[in-house]
Structures are given as structure tokens and as C-alpha cells.
Amino acid sequence: MDSVEILGLIAATLTTAAFVPQVYKTWKNKSVEDISLTMYTVLLIGVLLWLVYGVNINSLPVILANGITSALLILMVLMKLKYK
């Protein structure tokens, strides 16, 4: 693993981890009043496209970050629909 891939993994970890507090807070409070379904849906589509791109270029940091972020965004969209 070279330094560029390590840098990518660190960046992937930080940007993916940024969603965890929001997912936890939404799940705990069951409050989605201030969550934009449109924003999360558009972001999810973009992240899924990044995931496909990462698979095509065989980039572990891109695949991991966008795979995990996709799962977190799907949870947010589902909670938005459920707790509406």
C-alpha cells in the first residue's frame, strides 16, 4: 500500500465518519423535520455513481468510502420516510 492509497483511506474514513453522528441522532430522536429528502436523495445518487466509478478503477478508498456512505445515506432516506 503506497502513501497515496493511505491518504485516500484516511480521507475516506473522515468523510464517511462525518455522516455517523447525523444517522445516530436521527435514529435516537426519531426526528427528521429538518432533514431534506431531496438533498439526501441527490447525494445518494452521486455517491452510488462514485461507488461504480471506484469499482471500475479498482480503487479501495473510493469503494470503501462510497459503499459505507451509501449505506448511511440509505438509512437516512429510510428514516426520513418512516419518521415523516
From TrEMBL:
Subcellular location: Membrane
GO CC, any one term: membrane
Gene3D superfamilies for this protein: 1.20.1280.290
Membrane topology field: Multi-pass membrane protein
Pfam short name (any one): PQ-loop
Transmembrane segments: 6-24, 36-53, 59-79
MF GO annotations: sugar transmembrane transporter activity
Keywords assigned by UniProt, alphabetized: Membrane, Transmembrane, Transmembrane helix
Protein name per its UniProtKB record: MtN3 and saliva related transmembrane protein
